[in-house]
Design goal:
The protein is an alpha/beta fold and 343 residues long. The protein has eleven helices and eight strands. The protein has two domains: 177 residues, 3-Layer(aba) Sandwich (Rossmann fold), CATH 3.40.50.1400; 138 residues, Rossmann fold. The longest helix is centred in the first third of the chain and has 27 residues.
Length: 343
């Protein structure tokens, strides 16, 4: 057996909370055809002609609100997770990388190669499969491996939306921060409907069948919405919540296309109208806190909730480097390498 290594891959972050750095990050992120799947010319005109002229000036101040002494929260927590894994697991080398920004995937791969890794596990840090996250990260990694002419034995983590090593720490983190009389909102990162419909090879399930995300089918085996529903229902079961104690929504929309519904903003408004005064929000698609949780939810949604008449909002921290989650992640890794050995 060769030396084992793991590349943890997250989405990415600007290097600094400045307009220039945010613009560089957004350029790389939004020009990825797996993120905005419009034709090349339209994507270039949309991103370079409109988005990059406006959004960096709006987003840079938001990053400034959440920036930590050590740097970007997403990078800080990714680094802590990686260091904890390296301390916990003796016979496996762990490196983390960002699909967009730094440290780059190329940088992480070269570090693992230099450490003599011969068996490589690619671990996109996304429990729920999506072309814009999991697939993009893997495609770019294989591109870098080819450019490096490095050919280790490779295995992919895949999606793990209901694996106990993930959902049990998630449920524990919610339970420790959830008041018994608060409504729990599961807020997942949004995804254009076109992305999930593309996964449905049957062409007659996604958005065609009522409650399509709740129904298990070959057509939605890799459906992001279905994976999000699976996580929600599993955690709800672990917490023993009744139907009226929780809701599901999708956040972080960009552009005029149709997105998965309901939006987190609309769902919060609906809950306040229903009389919800105490609300807790958890964002299970994010394994580490970043702009979407620390600013969008904990600042933006919080202010909106209070303005509407809500009284108390708790935004539950991501798993970050929680000890039970790092231990669970190490077990997921161990299982994957065991499956490689027996394949």
């Amino acid at each position: 057996m060769g030396k084992k290594g793991v590349l943890l891959i997250n989405v990415g972050t600007p290097d600094e909370p400045t307009v220039k750095s945010v613009r560089n990050y957004l350029r790389e992120f939004l020009l990825d055809p797996d993120v905005i799947d419009a034709p090349y010319i339209i994507r270039q005109l949309l991103v370079r002609g409109i988005i990059l002229r406006v959004r960096p000036r709006k987003i840079a101040p938001l990053y400034q609100k959440i920036w930590m002494d050590e740097g970007s929260p997403l990078r800080v927590y990714s680094d802590r997770i990686t260091k904890s894994l390296n301390d916990m697991v003796e016979d496996i080398e762990f490196e983390f990388a960002m699909r967009y920004g730094n440290p780059s995937i190329e940088y992480g791969l070269k570090n693992l190669q230099a450490k003599g890794v011969e068996e490589l596990l690619l671990l996109p840090m996304f429990p729920h499969y999506a072309q814009a996250t999991t697939e993009s990260a893997l495609k770019h990694t294989y591109k870098q491996l080819k450019a490096m002419k490095w050919q280790p034995k490779i295995i992919e983590m895949g999606h793990f939306e209901t694996d106990e090593e993930y959902v049990v720490p998630l449920a524990n983190s919610i339970e420790s921060q959830l008041d018994k009389d608060a409504h729990l909102l599961f807020s997942y990162h949004g995804l254009p409907v076109s992305h999930v419909k593309r996964i449905d090879t049957s062409k007659n399930h996604c958005q065609q069948v009522d409650e399509c995300c709740s129904i298990k089918s070959e057509a939605n085996a890799l459906c992001y919405g279905h994976h999000c529903m699976n996580t929600t229902q599993t955690v709800v079961g672990l917490l023993g919540l009744s139907e009226d104690q929780w809701s599901l929504s999708f956040q972080s929309r960009i552009g005029p296309v149709k997105w998965l519904e309901p939006s987190t903003m609309n769902k919060v408004e609906e809950l306040v109208k229903r009389g919800v005064k105490k609300l807790a929000i958890v964002a299970p698609a994010f394994l580490a806190d970043g702009l979407e949780t620390l600013e969008e939810l904990d600042i933006g949604i919080r202010e909106h909730f209070i303005e509407l008449g809500g009284e108390e909002l708790t935004v539950i921290k991501c798993l970050n480097d929680n000890e039970d989650w790092v231990e669970g992640l190490s077990k997921l890794v161990g299982k994957k390498f065991d499956s490689m050995a027996t394949a």
